[in-house]
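Project standup — Tuesday

K.O.: blocked on the structure for the chain from last sprint. Re-posting the sequence here as requested.
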Amino acid sequence: MAPSWVPSLAPVPAYNYFSNQLLLTLPIYSGGKLENIIDQAKLGQKISDLNFDAVKQQLKLEVTIGYSRVLHTSNLLEIARQTVNDFTGHLKNVQAQYDAGVVPLPDLLQTKVKLANAQDGLIKAENNYNLAVYNLNNIMGLPLREELKLKDDFKYQSYSLSLGDCIEYAFTNRPEVIEAQTNIAVKQDDVKIAQSNSLPALNLIGSNALDDTEFPGGKNRKWQVGLNVEMNVFDSGRTKSQVRRAVSSVNSAQERAQKIKDGVSLEVSSAFLSMKEAEKRIETNFVAVNQRR
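H.V.: unblocked you, prediction finished:
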């Protein structure tokens, strides 16, 4: 504390009086305010962790989609190359037959047109494959033109979970759903903090004072210990207004959480039905392929 002068009847020379004081306050009861503030801090940390998990899940999804697109375009590229090779060989046969006078000129021209269309499709397939590779490299943070050698290939596996099981699993594990529920708890703590303003607060106060006629003033010691009770008897309705606003925030958080759950339910349902559609198409195509053999 800065040197100060206190008027006194004692024979102390003016401007030659130094005092120091140490004051400690320990909250004993705050009406739940401190407890809920601490709880909010813990919930805030949980929300930060959930946001990080959401980013990781989104990145994992983007990599998976990019990976599958590379596989898909790679298969289409092989088909396009095989098609060009087939039409090239076919054109040689037709050309030989035309030279021998076996086939007419329109058949030869038609074969050349089919080969040109196949070559055009090959160019598009190569471009789509390169773009898929560039996109996957960009997602993974690699140079765009980095050559990829994919080891794993996706194979069809039957999915045993029901739609209800999938939705329930999403509600339990999707970070945005958990974050929305956690945010409700944060807003509920706001209500308790606002309500605590109408409750008494009890603090334990201790002080230790030192004063002397010589710097730094540490000769004469006086200490005190006491209890301090604080309570707002009349605040012009401020506390009630804060409580109403906090309750309104809880209701808004609950509505937002329900909308998020509805959105997740819609996403899961759409993905589940698309998967079942793909399963049926795989079965149908498998039968058609076997019949053509």
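K.O.: great, moving the ticket to review. Residues 1-6 have pLDDT under 50 and may be disordered. The radius of gyration is 39 Å.
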